[in-house]
Design a protein that fits this description.
Layout (H helix, E strand, L loop, with lengths): L1 H7 L7 H8 L3 H15 L3 E4 L3 E4 L8 H8 L5 E5 L5 H10 L6 E5 L21 E10 L8 H15 L5 E4 L3 E4 L2 E12 L4 E10 L16 H5 L5 H22 L5 H6 L7 E6 L2 E10 L5 E5 L2 E5 L5 E4 L6
Parallel strand pairs: 3-4
Antiparallel strand pairs: 1-2, 4-5, 5-9, 6-7, 7-8, 8-9, 10-11, 10-14, 11-12, 12-13
Helix pairs in contact: 2-3, 4-8, 6-8
Length: about 325
């Protein structure tokens, strides 16, 4: 099916006869493969008598060879899949199988993509970036302090280099354009955080998605922001290089070195917010973050620091009274 997708990738019409010749199969076999594409991958196909078949629009498929070549200087192993439950889950499986590290897992589609706090990450085929980086961490908890915030800086730099100048951070690990979500980060840890462990850095970026009836929050994509198709292979390469640079500095100096840079990119710096934890909420003004990545709030003129995976930050004006 990958070869058929490559033939249709340009979004132009291709006759059943031409597709059959390219694939070395009959027109009837082409028809069956097209039906399989629609059923298994959720791809929308257009059929016009006399013209043939085309995708609803052009797509940019991941190219394993190109990505591996571009990332070779990093000495990261690259694993590209057509469909996975989630790239984070696959990274954990590979780590348990003692695969070479660091490793990158990519997928054209996720069937059980995950976000923070148990939320589903919508992952249509061939449109966005579903990316996980698996690393061995030595040296205990200090190596993990502020790590998700640091990853956010690498994502922001990648987006800015691609022309998305309006992108900014929202504590702890969302990337927004205005109030619309563009990307998210999910870190998972296996092993002993006090000694030797593995961390999986999961990153989802809406790249070429234009419509979705399944996303339950306000969102945008790089394509919606700039009006053109992006090469996902180049985004993978750029993101990986920026991650490698930030991670190398973080290993030496910790997150404290990046506090000011992170705060300069925080869209809600100085804003009145509500920090939600279950059914309770704390109202305050965002002062910034501490050396470990905790959120600093002015609460009744007293500074308090908050951290934890189950916390959610909202602009106070958006919280129902």
């Amino acid at each position: 099916m990958r070869t058929l997708l490559r033939l249709l990738e340009d979004g132009e019409f291709h006759s059943g006869e031409a597709l059959g010749v390219a694939l070395g199969v009959s027109r009837a076999a082409v028809w069956k493969k097209l039906q399989q594409l629609e059923a298994e991958l959720g791809i929308e196909l257009h059929r016009v008598r006399g013209k043939g078949y085309r995708l609803a629009g052009p797509i940019c498929l991941l190219d394993t060879v190109q990505i591996s070549d571009l990332l070779r200087p990093l000495l990261w192993s690259v694993h590209v899949h057509q469909s996975l439950d989630s790239t984070n889950a696959e990274a954990i499986r590979l780590i348990n199988e003692r695969a070479a590290l660091p490793l990158v897992v990519l997928a054209e589609q996720q069937t059980a993509g995950r976000g923070r706090r148990g939320r589903t990450w919508i992952s249509p085929f061939g449109e966005n970036l579903y990316y996980s980086l698996g690393l061995r961490i030595d040296g205990g908890m200090r190596q993990l302090e502020g790590l998700s915030l640091l990853v956010g800086l690498a994502v922001i730099k990648t987006l800015r280099n691609a022309g998305i100048s309006e992108a900014g951070l929202k504590w702890p690990n969302d990337i927004l354009v205005g109030r619309q979500k563009l990307a998210g980060i999910l870190l998972e840890i296996t092993g002993d955080p006090a000694d030797v462990c593995h961390v999986i850095i999961g990153i989802g970026i809406n790249i070429n998605m234009r419509t979705s009836s399944s996303v339950d929050q306000s969102w945008t994509s790089m394509r919606l922001e700039k009006g053109h198709l992006f090469d996902r292979n180049l985004i993978v390469t750029s993101l990986s290089k920026h991650l490698a640079e930030y991670l190398a500095e973080h290993r030496k100096d910790g997150f404290a070195r990046f506090r000011k840079e992170w705060e300069a990119n925080h869209l809600w710096q100085g804003c009145e917010v509500a920090l939600l934890a279950g059914s309770s909420a704390v109202q305050g003004i965002v002062l910034g973050v501490d050396a470990a990545g905790g959120l600093r709030l002015s609460v009744g003129d007293v500074e308090q620091v908050f951290s934890g995976g189950e916390l959610s930050l909202r602009l106070f004006e958006d919280v129902p009274s």
